[in-house]
Amino acid sequence: MIGAVHQSYAEGCSTHEGFNRAYTIHGTHYLRLINNIGYHVMGMNVFIEDAAETKNYIYKNLMMRTSASNSLLNVDMTPASFWITHPDNAFIENHAAGSDRYGFWYDLKEHSMGPNANLNVCPENSRVGDFINNHAHSNGRYGLRIFENMIPRTYPCSPIVYDSDYLAKNKTDGYWQNPLITANFFNLTSWKNNRNGAIAEKVGDIRFVNFKTADNILGGMEMTFTNVVK
Q1: What value does the CA radius of gyration of the chain take, rounded to a whole number of Å?
Q2: Within 10 Å of residue 53's Cβ, how many Cβ atoms?
Q3: pTM > 0.90: yes or no
Q4: Pairing of strands 175-177, 161-163
Q5: Which of 52, 103, 163, 222 is deepest in the core (most CB within 10 A)?
Q6: Angle at alpha carbon of residue 11, lines to 6 and 12, rounded to 5°
């Protein structure tokens, strides 16, 4: 709960056999989380708590054997090594291995919550930060899960509206107000997960670029609904 911390970092730490998370980012922005390890820790291991946290740099961390807990939040019964409630954070060259459920889980919220609750913060429609060269393997369900909505747009808290009258007024095609923002997920390597290498539920202009998936039981990559407008 310390706001912008441009000069702060957690680097080279090891957390193991813990009962309540490895690294929690709460009400904090611009933190650097670099070269850390979490091993056999219960609940979400890298935990972005209130869906208000942005611009954090999460680089070259290794989370192994993330374990379910019945004593924390409900979501911790289906834990992820990296639990991401606001998309505007950078995840680069991290490894998620052997989680009970998920490797990377974008569980985006409609608004921020907890002590940082704010109806003017709309994570599920916000821009997506860097997702580059991450690895996920041997997880209980998905290597990468985007659930439920990820529809980044120019004005996150405003709807996307198609102005069909634009044709009559301007002698051209209709016009999309509040246009979508492209989000690229680069170079995920995801293998031996018990369902999918990567799955997305309801997404806008989301692109999986140069993904490598292998030996996942259900499928490599799956998208349920795309270009959802609301």
Answers
A1: 18
A2: 25
A3: yes
A4: antiparallel
A5: 103
A6: 175
